[in-house]
Amino acid sequence: MEVIAFVGPSGTGKSYRALKVALDNDVQCIIDDGILIYNNRLVAGSSAKKESSRLKAVRRAIFQDKKQVESVRNKLEAIQPKRLMILGTSENMVKKITKALGLSDPARYIHIEDVATTKEIERAQYARLKEGKHIIPVPTMELKPHFKGYIIDPLKSIFRRRGSQTHIAQIGDADFENSVVRPAFSFYGRLTFSDAVILSLIRNGLEKVPGVASGADIHFRKSKSGPNSLQIQVEVNLYKGYNPREIMPKAQKAIKFEVEYMTGMTVERMTLEPNMTGLQDPKGNRRMVRRILQ
Q: Strands (DSSP E) along 150-257, which ranges?
């Protein structure tokens, strides 16, 4: 199964254009915001747009729930699609989804700028930020059993080939139908994390690793490769008697889990530098130190 990534920042119109891009690239299945779509139907998973908070929505979108992962994987095995398209806000997000689902990395990437003009992207962003409108590439009637009590409206979409006046050939000679949904979390506005929150999450992750005294000289910044990616650098202070070669991978894993699970962001790169403090571990867990700090 070939995986194609359809990438663009949140609210730029990926879901709105997903069916057209899928048709143009002979894609049989689409994964968007936690759901698997096949033949214009929601066949597995659970939509992130049903969640009550943006944090929960992000976790749902990147498949952090084991039952959700199992349902989507089982359905993909049953369908055996030749080609699958995954929508994501960044290339890193799509890779995170493929890893969670046990799929191969994308064979190629399609960016929203490849299929939409600047003005079209701006209009989509306005609808998301000002009106709270979210698009799901599934007909409204199909979604009603899954979105009881939500605001749902049908949205007919007619796309034309660039440089041509003829409509794109569409499934069943019908226009594409998407659904407009306004999730509960869209009423709360844009979610941002202060530097203090990220610092606290990094320190909290380190506190869970035996042998780590503290984190010092912590630096982090957003990556240029995507709006939801971070690069982190930390000096890790270790208690006397611990082997840095054993502790550093655990510290890296703890920080990565804490930051990604709580914020939904991706840790793209992390640099940890060990520093022996000479202090005794108050818990009394000591090991012989092999001073190889390469």
A: 151-157, 176-182, 212-222, 229-238
Q: With the C-alpha atoms ordered 66, 67, 68, 69, is the resulting torsion angle positive or negative?
A: positive
Q: In terms of DSSP bridges, do strands 266-276 and 229-238 run parallel, antiparallel, or are they unpaired? A: parallel
Cβ atoms within 10 A of the Cβ of 121, count?
A: 18
Asked whether the beta carbons of 51 and 60 are under 8 A apart, the reply is: yes
Name the helix (H) or strand (E) containing 110.
Answer: strand 108-111
Amino acid at 136: I
In residues, how long is the chain?
294
User: Within its chain, how far is the Cα of 78 from the centroid?
Assistant: 25
Tokens read off for 38 = 């096949």
Per-residue pLDDT of the chain (294 residues; tens, 9 = 90+): 999 999 998 889 999 899 989 999 999 999 998 999 998 888 999 888 777 777 788 888 899 889 999 999 999 999 999 999 999 989 989 999 999 999 999 999 999 999 999 999 988 887 776 667 788 888 877 777 777 656 566 776 655 444 433 333 333 334 677 877 777 665 445 567 788 999 999 999 999 999 999 998 899 988 876 656 789 999 999 998 899 999 999 999 999 888 877 776 778 889 999 998 888 887 765 443 333 333
Spell out the residues 6+ positions from residue 170 whose beta carbon is closer than 8 angstroms to its own.
23, 176
d(CA 70, CA 78): 12
CA-nearest of 181, 269, 171 to 229 is 269
List, in order of start, the domains of the chain with CATH numbers.
2-188 (no CATH), 195-276 (3.30.70.1350)
Sign of the Cα torsion 100, 106, 226, 23 reads negative
Instruction: Judge contact between 212 and 248, C-beta under 8 A.
Output: no
